[in-house]
Amino acid sequence: MNKWENNKAWFFLIPVLIFVCFSAIIPLMTVVNYSVQDILAPGKTVFVGTEWYRIMLRDPRLHEALWRQFLFSGLVLLIEMPLGVLIALAMPKKGWGVSFCLVTLALPLLIPWNTIGTIWMIFVRPDIGLFGAAINEWLGIAFDHTRKPLDAWITLMFMEVWHWTPLVALLAYAGLRAIPEVYYQAAKIDGASSWATFLYIQLPKMRGVLTIALLLRFMDSFLIYAEPFVLTGGGPGNATTFLSIYLVKLATGQFDVGPAGAFSLIYFLIILVLCFIFYQVLQNVGKGAKT
Amino acid sequence: MARIEFNEVAHSYLKNPKGDADYALKRIHNAWEDGGAYALLGPSGCGKTTLLNIISGLVNPSKGKVLYDGREVAGLSPEKRNIAQVFQFPVLYDTMTVFDNLAFPLRNRGTAKAEVEKRVREVAEILDLTHFLNQRAAGLAADAKQKISLGRGLVRSNVAAILFDEPLTVIDPHLKWHLRRKLKEIHEQLKLTLIYVTHDQVEALTFADKVVVMYEGEIVQTGTPEDLFENPEHTFVGYFIGSPGMNFLPCKIDGNMARIDGAKIPLDEKTAVMARNVREKLELGIRPMYLEVTPFAVENGVPVQIVLIEDQGSHKIVSVKLAGQLVRAVVPEDKPVPEGKAWIVFPQQKIKLFADKRLLKSEGATL
Amino acid sequence: MSIFLDSVSKKVGTETHINNISLEFENGTTNVVLGHTLAGKTSLLRLIAGLDRPTSGRILMDGTDVIGVPVRKRSVAMVYQQFINYPSLTVYDNIASPLKMSGMKKDVIDQKVRKTAAMLHIDNLLDRLPAELSGGQQQRTAIARSLVKDAELLLLDEPLVNLDYKLREELRFELQEIFKQRQAIVIYTTTEPAEALMLGGNIVVLDEGRVLQTGPTPYVYHHPENTRVATVFSDPPINFLSGVVQGRFAKLGEDIGIPMVGHLESVPNGNYLFGVRPNHLFLTNGNEKNAEIRVKVELAEINGSETFIHVCHGDAHLVIQEDGIHTKQIGSEIAIYVDPCCFFVYDQAGQLVASPASNGVQK
Q1: Do residues C189 and C274 share a domain?
Q2: Which of A195, B28, B48, C104 has the fewest beta carbons under 10 Å from its own?
């Protein structure tokens, strides 16, 4: 559209552009810069081309972290998405129950991430934690997330699901509420069962919000840092060393900013590509197939 | 198929309705005969959709009984009542093909595969949808989508009735008459009970054999299109049917004359006798097309001032002031219209008298 | 004020919305833009308002080019199809909003708002919010807002199309009274011939982004220059029958013979299209000059006081408009009648050759 009159509006965007420059573009370019240089000493740098990329791509610890990350994100999505939809379906449609459910669901989302790690760290401690002590003492199951990798994983999964399923539920609930009443009436008249109503009306109509939920949850879980850092610090051993934890170890622990820069960019690209694929697939699910 | 009866039905959306005003439907006592084509006509908020939803069972009435072929159906789900309903906006199962959409109501009821195939093809044929059967329903134009919604109603061979809730709202004007024709044909072919809700008089009068006019939660008249036009039983019907609507003038009876301020309009003997016994507020009603406008004084002509002439091409709408009130007359295009002063004649046999908004009828019964 | 559009075109991408239009509008006139959906009516209004910039051509107001002048610096008011009001403001504040922006004194604003509201019969609703109003009342509020600032240019884009027909009747009647009192250029778009005729004034018949015909509204109605104008300016659309003229007779459709007398007398031999409006076809034979047409009924549509009967004559699809209520069985064969005096004759290129005599309509 040719709204020449409003060209002045562009000026209002300049502050944002400057802000984005400082917050995203300049740091990103700095990282690109690091990733192609070897810093031998402050002020003494050597251009190494794609050397760091080659090294990082062959790094077995990165591979492990990557698979760990995929497994974690995959499991989280598999649990959170259906669970969120189920919660949304079970929520009341009107009355005081609605606000009660919404507030209760939103609570975990309001807590700072590192606090969540701390809460759970205490909660599952085998000696004093309510949960940890309960199953150790009363059920007699030896549970210790600081020593057993599986226990560490279970704890992390629990925490992640507890923390983020509400977001999926809230989005799904908003999607459900947006379905006009006539669809349900038509389904009743067509004699559709509840399952058929879910499959042919609710699920297709929720596609938009579920796509967003899936993308958000994938990105967030793939970037997870604060909670495992606080809870397990990547251990026991390397059992919960996810990509971000490994990256931080590399960058700030060992000051290998060159490899860390290359790693960051690879990490960034993986997320970008996966999001794109998810988005495309979900947009086209059940659409194509035109004769 | 079934005869549907309403026995003293009333409905309020409130839990504890107090006065009449709290009722969306006040008192409906009516029957829909098997195989009839009915229209429920009325302005928005008159309760017509509520009535439709009570028939289908989506809403349970606060009072009264609904009978299908004499059997009470209170509490029965729409599915059990075997009703089909078409809504204002096309309701489709987006992820399914047109074929699957049409087959859906049958498959839900466990119909055999061959029978499903046969019925779907038949219905698609009637609605000119055969061509689209393998396409996804989501990508089609609005009229095709609405035909699919309609098709889902027709596909079950044994429905008690098909209900339509303003089904042509989203259809382009030039396609409307085409779909109206389709509906009429379907009715003539299949002889189903059809009940059609609309606020559009063209749709109602064109579609239905019997039109039920609703106003403020009540049925004010049920009749053929001709009845509604010629003998409106309520001033609302006179106003709502016809364009422009009927003229209404408050009047007093003076011998065989209806007096509107200074103007005197002669009535026929029978009407005058009836009117003399009426205590309520009297109004004289006349259709604009029955008024004669002349440029010179004639016998029984009432002198008026012309306010506005609206040329509509095929006719002119002449607005005149009679005793301070606006009266509309329709004049054919080939008849000249005087300017300024004119006389209008009220043909006696076309004059209707209304007492407290209800038509005065000859048996002395004022309904 | 006067507005002059000089060879204005508007293209969006590869689509041409407005195709080389030149028009002139004078102060104190009511102008109707008639055309089907997508004819370019809204595009034209947006160009005149200054909301869009034409791809080529000039728009002059009182002789000066106004392209590039921002809308808010122009004296223009617009009413849309949708009922557009500020949802959080009361009716009073909605109507007052254009005045407040111009920094008018409070008591002057109050007086103007009340006067305009009274004109549109919403003076008892001033404290309500738009959401508490019916569709008709919402549109009255939107119209009041556009009228209150006394703009020199008042643009209305199918303002009544979303109202139900009874409200449309009332507002139409009131609007033409209001327009008469204005010293402004009123431009009103519509798809309905009856609405155009009712508003009178001048008409611009628009089709596919082009101007087909302009002139006084009644004149254009009685002399549609080509078949397209005749179709657009007739509701239901005008009926066409192809015919061959030979000497003093013509053969129309399958088997209709008519004498070439009256206004038809001067039409030379050849192939033509004969157009007749639906209200000039009759179910009963009231005149011995009438020609009979054998047809098959497709549908009878009743609009309350009239019936439209859709019929087929061979391949030709005809519509008859008859007063009163007539129910006809679908598929039945009937005879309809037409007075040869009512035929418009168009040549093969669709240009008007002869039109019926119309009493007293001047160009």
Answers
A1: no
A2: A195
How far is Cα C153 from Cα B192, in angstroms, rounded to an integer? 55
Nearest to C307 by CA among C279, C335, C340, C277: C279
Q: Which among C53, C70, C71 has CB closest to A2?
A: C53
Helix (H, G, I), strand (E, B) or coil at C6: strand
Find the CATH number of the domain harbouring C306: 2.40.50.140
The 3-class SS string of B221-259 reads EEECHHHHHHCCCEHHHHHHCCCCCCEEEECEEECCEEE
Q: Which of C37, C278, C303 lies nearest to residue B202, judging by beta carbons? A: C303
Give C256's contacts (C-beta < 8 A, 6+ positions apart).
C241, C243, C291, C292, C293
Q: Quick one: C178 and C302 in the same domain?
A: no
Regarding whether C253 and C224 lie in a shared domain, the answer is no
C129: exposed, middle or buried (Cβ count in 10 Å: 0-12, 13-18, 19+): middle
Cβ atoms of C25 and C60 closer than 8 Å: no
Let me know if B167 is exposed, middle or buried by CB neighbors in 10 A (0-12, 13-18, 19+): buried
Q: Would you call C68 an interface residue with chain A, using a CB distance cutoff of 8 Å?
A: yes
Indicate whether C31 and C155 sit together in one domain: yes
In chain A, what are the domains?
A: 60-290 (1.10.3720.10)
Q: Which residues of A touch B108 (CB under 8 A)?
A: 190-193, 196
Number of domains in chain C: 2
Whether C209 and C303 share a structural domain: no
Instruction: Indicate whether C212 and C267 sit together in one domain.
Output: no
C148 and C223, same structural domain? yes
What does the alpha-carbon distance between residue C75 and residue C62 come to, in Å, rounded to a whole number? 13
Which chain C residues have a beta carbon less than 8 Å from that of B184? 299, 330
Dist CA B42 CA B20 (whole Å): 19
Record: contact C194-B313, CB cut-off 8 A: yes
Tokens of C59: 């728009």
Q: What is the pLDDT of residues C110-167, one digit of tens each?
A: 999 999 998 888 889 999 998 888 888 898 899 999 989 888 899 999 998 877 778 8
Residue B200 has pLDDT above 90, yes or no: no
ipTM of the complex as predicted: 0.78
Q: What is the pLDDT of residues C59-98, one digit of tens each?
A: 999 888 888 888 878 889 999 888 888 989 999 999 999 8
Which chain A residues are within 8 Å of B104, Cβ to Cβ? 190, 192, 200
B149 to A196: CB separation less than 8 angstroms, yes or no: no
- Give B-chain residues touching A191 at CB under 8 angstroms: 79, 105, 108-109
- What is the span of the domain harbouring residue C56? 2-231
Identify the domain boundary among C208, C231, C254: C231
Closest chain C residue to A6, measured at CA? C70
The answer to whether B77 contacts chain A (CB < 8 Å) is: yes
